[in-house]
UniProtKB/TrEMBL annotation:
Residues 70-141 form the Transcription regulator AsnC/Lrp ligand binding domain. This is Lrp/AsnC family transcriptional regulator. Pfam families: AsnC_trans_reg. It comes from Marinicrinis sediminis. InterPro entries: Dimeric_a/b-barrel, HTH-Siroheme_Decarb, Tscrpt_reg_AsnC-like, Tscrpt_reg_AsnC/Lrp_C, WH-like_DNA-bd_sf. The keyword NAD does not apply. Keywords: Coiled coil. It comes from the Bacteria.
């Protein structure tokens, strides 16, 4: 990847709505050069998706998100990849990460209720042949995601009192 691509990715990571014209101005390049670079990165699957970060706590939403630690026995010849693929193909699975440490995969899922998430873990995930154990953690509140702070920070407006 060339330096121009890296600069464009840094800008788009901060704000995916920035136009090629604005990026060209920021980088002192021709707009056509930026458009071509973006098109090339989309074609090469470097830019996979443009997404919006949503503060779901501000929306009347009944979503339940859980992070699940999964210990597995790796498959001969394919390691962790085969089971990770089986897991990420479930529609409720939002992310799967190979981890170092005390467990192998971290699975992020969304459901409509605690019961739905528990049902997924007990009926689908834990029944997979290579799964040794699971540990489910429910997300109660998100404070920060993708560099975005969700808290409405209130400045302290109390009067300073000194003796």
């Amino acid at each position: 990847m060339n330096p121009l691509h890296s600069e464009i990715l840094d800008i788009l990571k901060e704000d995916a709505k920035k136009s090629a014209a604005v990026i060209a101005t920021m980088l002192d390049r021709a707009e056509e050069e930026i458009e071509q670079a973006i098109a090339d990165m989309e074609k090469d699957n470097i830019i996979v998706k443009y997404a919006t970060v949503v503060n779901w706590s501000k929306v009347a939403s009944d979503k339940v998100t859980a992070l699940i630690e999964v210990q597995i026995t790796p498959e001969r010849g394919r390691g962790f990849d085969a089971l990770a693929e089986r897991i990420y193909l479930y529609p409720e699975v939002k992310a799967v990460y190979l981890m170092s440490g005390s467990y192998d995969l971290q699975v992020e899922i969304e459901g409509k209720s605690l019961h739905e998430v528990a049902s997924f873990v007990s009926n689908k995930l834990s029944t997979l042949e290579s799964v040794i154990s699971t540990k489910t953690h429910f997300i109660l509140k998100k404070y920060k995601q993708d560099g975005i702070i969700f808290e409405d920070h209130q400045d302290d407006h109390r009067m300073l009192v000194s003796p």
